[in-house]
Amino acid sequence: MAKVKVTQVRSTIGKPEDQKATITALGLGKINRTVEVENTPQIAGMIRKVSHLVKVEEA
Predict the structure, then answer these.
(1) Neighbouring-strand partners of residue 54
(2) Is the distance from CB of 39 to CB of 1 less than 8 angstroms?
(3) How far is Cα 16 from Cα 18, in angstroms, rounded to an integer?
(4) Could you give the 3-state DSSP secondary structure of residue 52?
(5) Tens of pLDDT along 9-56?
(6) Which domains does the chain have, with CATH numbers?
(7) Residues forming a β-bridge with 59
(8) Where do the Large ribosomal subunit protein uL30-like ferredoxin-like fold domain residues begin and end (predicted)?
(9) What three-state secondary structure class fits 46?
(10) For 10, which DSSP code?
Protein backbone atom coordinates (compact mmCIF):
# COMPACT_ATOMS: atom_id res chain seq x y z
CA MET A 1 0.00 0.00 0.00
CA ALA A 2 1.02 3.58 -0.56
CA LYS A 3 1.92 5.71 2.42
CA VAL A 4 0.86 9.28 3.10
CA LYS A 5 2.28 11.91 5.43
CA VAL A 6 -0.38 13.61 7.53
CA THR A 7 0.52 16.84 9.34
CA GLN A 8 -1.78 18.62 11.77
CA VAL A 9 -1.92 22.31 10.84
CA ARG A 10 -4.88 23.57 12.89
CA SER A 11 -5.94 23.22 16.51
CA THR A 12 -8.79 21.01 17.72
CA ILE A 13 -9.89 23.60 20.30
CA GLY A 14 -13.62 24.18 19.91
CA LYS A 15 -14.05 21.26 17.51
CA PRO A 16 -16.52 18.38 18.06
CA GLU A 17 -15.38 15.41 20.15
CA ASP A 18 -15.51 13.03 17.17
CA GLN A 19 -13.00 15.19 15.28
CA LYS A 20 -10.71 15.32 18.33
CA ALA A 21 -10.92 11.53 18.60
CA THR A 22 -10.10 11.14 14.90
CA ILE A 23 -7.00 13.35 15.25
CA THR A 24 -5.88 11.23 18.22
CA ALA A 25 -6.54 7.98 16.33
CA LEU A 26 -4.35 9.23 13.47
CA GLY A 27 -1.52 9.68 15.97
CA LEU A 28 -1.61 13.46 15.95
CA GLY A 29 -2.59 15.90 18.71
CA LYS A 30 -0.22 18.84 18.45
CA ILE A 31 0.14 21.37 15.65
CA ASN A 32 2.96 20.55 13.18
CA ARG A 33 3.15 16.92 14.31
CA THR A 34 3.54 14.59 11.31
CA VAL A 35 2.82 10.88 11.00
CA GLU A 36 3.30 8.49 8.08
CA VAL A 37 0.40 6.06 7.65
CA GLU A 38 -0.76 3.49 5.11
CA ASN A 39 -3.35 4.86 2.69
CA THR A 40 -6.15 2.40 3.43
CA PRO A 41 -9.86 3.20 2.87
CA GLN A 42 -10.28 3.53 6.65
CA ILE A 43 -7.43 6.03 6.98
CA ALA A 44 -8.65 7.93 3.91
CA GLY A 45 -12.05 8.33 5.57
CA MET A 46 -10.46 9.59 8.77
CA ILE A 47 -8.39 12.10 6.81
CA ARG A 48 -11.47 13.27 4.92
CA LYS A 49 -13.31 13.82 8.20
CA VAL A 50 -10.61 16.18 9.53
CA SER A 51 -9.34 17.52 6.20
CA HIS A 52 -9.75 21.10 7.42
CA LEU A 53 -7.29 20.41 10.28
CA VAL A 54 -4.56 18.50 8.44
CA LYS A 55 -2.26 18.66 5.41
CA VAL A 56 -1.68 15.47 3.40
CA GLU A 57 1.35 14.63 1.22
CA GLU A 58 2.42 11.51 -0.63
CA ALA A 59 5.24 9.72 1.21
Answers:
(1) 8
(2) yes
(3) 6
(4) coil
(5) 999 999 999 999 999 999 999 999 999 999 999 999 999 999 999 999
(6) 3-58 (3.30.1390.20)
(7) none
(8) 4-54
(9) helix
(10) S
